[in-house]
Amino acid sequence: MTDSKNEKKFPNTKTVYGPVKSWRFGMSLGIDPIFETSTCSFNCIYCQLGEIQDVTNLVKEYVPTSKVLQDFKEVIEKEVPIDVVTYSGSGEPSLAKNLGEMIKGIRKIRPELPQYILTNATHLVEPEVRENLLALDKIIVKIDASNEENFKLINRPAEGVTLKRVLEGIKLLKKEFKGEIEVQSMFMPINDKHLEDLATILKEVSPAAVQLNTPKRPYPLSWHRENRGNHELVFDYEVRELKKVEEDRAVEIQKQLEEKTGLKIYSVYR
Ligand code: SF4
């Protein structure tokens, strides 16, 4: 058990949460390799965690592998239905230096379960971060912005992080990773105007599929560990609604991106 100042504050003391129903992947068991506080190299304006507490590029061990494996064993002993294990949680999972150990440990316990990660791709330029991810089955990278200006406005990255660096990292990963790479893109009125540029980037990245999202969950005005997996839309703290792309427009964006890129595009509305 980790010694956490937050353990008194939050009833949830586990690094494993859910399973939560994912619109793409079925019953997804979340693994949180960050855990102590919200920590990310982005501070996205729509983040379901709210304002990121620690915006950082620091790759280090945030929570011991032994705790994650112990929490995982406790959940699977309950024999809940799980289709996939997804690394996400309290921030950017690839900041965890011991992520590779966690992936291998879970593989040993339940080898048949596919393991995915949701990552902002900021650290893929670093060889040790890519090495950690190679044992995964699928890597879902976030690309919301189609230029550096929008990248700063939407993702509000840590010092020194650029869209160029993100795209370079994905390119390097593609050379080494044997599983599937998908893109997840959050659409809001702010990035709706740059479809042509986004299509160019997507064609360059050439992922197996693209997921188009829009912020259906409101923005919490304070950090709660429970934000990790709250798909039930029950909040006992203050939240702010975000501007969504409406369904008709989302369908249009999907159609246009399909035409422009020839890629498989999934929309949260369908
Ligand atoms: S990358 Fe993910 S965890 Fe990080 S701020 Fe953006 S939405 Fe939140």
Q: Structural class, judged by helices and strands? A: alpha/beta
Tell me the distance between the termini. Answer: 41 Å
Number of continuous helical runs = 7
CATH topology: TIM Barrel
Question: What small-molecule ligands were found?
Answer: iron/sulfur cluster
Shape: globular
Rg over C-alpha atoms, rounded to the nearest angstrom: 18 Å
Reading the helices and strands in chain order gives EEEEHEHEHEHHEHEEEHE
Helical fraction equals 25-40%
Ranges with pLDDT <50 over ≥5 residues?
A: none
Instruction: Round the mean pLDDT to the nearest integer and report it.
Output: 90
Strand content: 15-25%
According to DSSP, the number of beta strands is: 12
CATH class: Alpha Beta
Instruction: Count structural domains.
Output: 1
CATH architecture, by name, is Alpha-Beta Barrel
**CATH H level: which superfamily?**
Aldolase class I
Strand order of the largest sheet: 1-2-5-6-7-8-9-12
Quick one: biggest sheet?
8 strands, mixed
In short:
The chain has 270 residues and is of the alpha/beta class. 29% of the residues lie in helices and 19% in strands.
